[in-house]
Specification:
Blueprint (H helix, E strand, L loop, with lengths): L14 E2 L4 E4 L3 H12 L4 E4 L31 H10 L17 H15 L2 E3 L3 E7 L5 E8 L2 E5 L3 E4 L5 H5 L4 E3 L14 E4 L3 H6 L11 H8 L10 E7 L2 E6 L10 H25 L1 H4 L3 E5 L9 E3 L7 H5 L7 E5 L9 H6 L16 E4 L11 E3 L8 H7 L2 H21 L9 H10 L8 H9 L1
Parallel strand pairs: 1-7, 2-3, 2-8, 3-4, 8-17
Antiparallel strand pairs: 5-6, 6-7, 9-14, 10-12, 10-13, 11-12, 15-16
Length: 458
């Protein structure tokens, strides 16, 4: 029966209490969190469920970075810039000054993250899943239970950083959270990214722009005709990620809940079918480029845009975004537009998102306060990545990889400070010191919006 339970028999399991900071989730936020914590001298462990670091940019095969600039300058700096520039230098077909929608070659990015984390001195546990969380009555996580080929193990640290993308650590420890549309509970659709190989580079580069923002893209007629039932809508982001290889962030999968293992499993099966359908469709409508193409790879992670939003000491809102708000405790700036992918009806009608907000002008951005990273009711836990404390609309902006890199560095530095100075209390971190250290490491933290405006005039 669905509500049946099973009680484990009591037995001892190995305990490792040698770390100051444990980061769960090795996506962009987790990698910079681990590197920053270790850089501060904290004994740091990074736990990753898959066999590689990088999350959506590697295992998820997202084919390009969202913009790193505010259309004038790079705003995601520090470790974020280091990751971005290190990868870009290894991709000869990318201009040196490119900052926006830069392609990602996933295998090279895996190595960039490996080096970032290991050279900082942090340890990595691959192929290791979070199994459970224990906490005390004072809001402290006391132990993480992890599962891998070594069996079930207990790990203990002074501070824990939740970079799972779904807020698993915080939610399992009892943190408050929101999820989905406030009225309907509906989640943004997911996408299963893939790479087509054996593409004719010249025909691809010089052929029609496939992205749906081009009104002459063949994808519009494909969807109108109904001749390709495996193609759900006009969403067709694509980038040349390597010679003869084009990565696709294409199509939508609705009703996918990334906190439900059966839901994700079904999405992976359906996503692989969709990748094959896109290959066949592109071979038919653009044979010069894709006539001999093959599905080279599909993501081992589903491209999830939305799941839990952990409630923190401050909830970032779309109004903060619209007002370009600055905060005394901000730990990074963000300039990506609010990008909420719509319902199935909206996407298939061509309406896209019903919650889009006008893009920022050149030089404009908003702050993300440290308080969005500190879960209410938990003492020794930080959250970084798409599950920070925010409303649903602004999640459409802060969920992307560049800002996750910046948030992760701040969380890692704060965790190290909490472990060393506050007995693990992340709410008591010296925020001016945190901000000063971020600046010393290259972070973009103008004192206020007036300073940002002055920079635009210089």
């Amino acid at each position: 029966m669905e509500n049946d339970t099973y009680t484990l028999k009591s037995k001892p399991i190995p305990l490792n209490a040698s770390y100051d900071v444990i980061v769960v989730g090795g996506g962009p936020a987790g990698c910079t969190a681990a590197a920053a914590a270790a850089r501060e001298g904290a004994r740091t462990l990074l736990v990753e469920a898959t066999g590689s670091l990088g999350g959506m940019g590697t295992s998820g095969l997202v084919p390009a970075w969202c913009p790193f600039s505010d259309k004038e300058k790079m705003v995601y700096r520090g470790l974020a810039a280091k990751v971005f520039n290190t990868l870009k230098a290894q991709m000869p077909h990318v201009p040196e000054d490119a900052m926006d929608w830069v392609p990602i070659e996933p295998e090279k990015l895996r190595r960039v993250y490996d080096d970032l984390v290991t050279e900082s001195g942090a340890h990595i546990l691959f192929l290791t899943s979070l199994a459970d969380v224990d906490r005390d009555d004072h809001g402290n996580i006391t132990t993480l239970l992890l599962l891998n080929k070594s069996g079930l193990q207990a790990f203990r640290a002074a501070v824990y950083i939740d970079c799972t993308g779904d807020g698993d650590v915080a939610a399992w420890a009892g943190a408050e959270y929101q999820m989905g549309d406030e009225a309907t509970g509906e989640l943004q659709p997911a996408t299963h990214c893939f790479i087509l190989g054996n593409v004719d580079d010249y025909a691809y580069v010089n052929g029609p722009k496939l992205h749906a923002e081009n009104p002459h893209s063949p994808i519009h007629e494909v969807v109108r005709s109904g001749e390709y039932p495996g193609i759900p809508d006009t969403h067709l982001c694509n980038n040349m990620v390597a010679p003869r290889a084009v990565g696709f962030n294409a199509g939508h999968l609705w009703g996918i809940d990334n906190t439900n293992a059966f839901s994700v499993s079904g999405a992976l099966v359906e996503g692989r079918k969709m990748a094959a359908a896109y290959r066949d469709m592109l071979a038919a409508v653009h044979p010069a480029a894709f006539g001999n193409a093959v599905v080279m790879s599909t993501g081992t992670l589903i491209g999830t845009r939305e799941s839990r939003r952990i409630t923190g000491d401050y909830v970032l809102t779309a109004e903060d975004y619209i007002s370009r708000r600055s905060f005394d405790d901000e730990i990074c700036r963000n300039s990506y537009f609010i990008d909420v992918h719509g319902t199935q009806k909206e996407q298939q009608s061509g309406a896209g998102s019903s919650q889009s907000i006008t893009l920022y002008g050149p030089g404009e951005s908003h702050g993300i306060p440290y308080r969005c990273l500190t879960p209410r009711g938990l003492r020794n836990v930080l959250v970084a990545g798409r599950s920070i404390s925010c409303d649903r609309r602004v999640l459409g902006s802060v969920r992307v990889m560049p800002v996750c890199l910046a948030m992760g560095e701040a969380a890692g530095l704060a965790a190290a400070l909490a472990a060393a100075q506050t007995g693990g209390d992340v709410h008591a971190v010296d925020v001016p010191l945190l901000r000063a250290r971020l600046r010393e490491e290259g972070g973009y933290l103008p004192d206020n919006q007036a300073e940002t405006a002055r920079e635009r005039l210089q």
